[in-house]
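Minutes, project check-in
Item: structure for the 186-residue chain
Input as provided by the requester:
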Amino acid sequence: MAFTRETVERLSSERSEPTWLCEARLQAWQRFEATPMPNSAKDEDWRRTDISKLDLSSFTPSLDGANTPVLTPSPAVAGEGGGEGTLPLGVIFTTLEQAVKDHPDLVREHLSDQDGKFLSLNAALWAGGAFVYVPPDVQLALPLVASFGEGAEAVFPRTLIVVDRGASLVYIDCFAGAGASILGLK
């Protein structure tokens, strides 16, 4: 399956996503199609990256949850507070898909449009990823980690972090490739 509008629609449909999210994905797809590929000779952000041989048609987006991260501390302990490895009351740390179901208003408010060819592609086809909400004046001492394993497909996880006024946290996205087990990252 290639990167197409139909792929975007299928992804949203198979996940039974709300209409607003499907529409946001389709708008992102339109931006992706309308945006030219970056040019390393003209675009400063791409000056040192040659993507002239990048063939997007050779990639298959992962639609089956291969992008779902392992979250540490586990989201099951969120809001229990008190002990080591638990999160303070009101902190949300879950997958982005689960946050769409459990906290749709919060996600919709902060899931912004993305400019640029590849950011728009991610906004259209994201699957997997993490969601963090830290309420006002909460200071998280424990780092939150989302670990992503290897995959043969194109992965488009998306991380959405909302830190309210006076709050703070340390967040780490960890991606492991095929050689990660050798390095002890798996």
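Outcome recorded: The longest helix spans residues 19-34.
No further action items on this chain.
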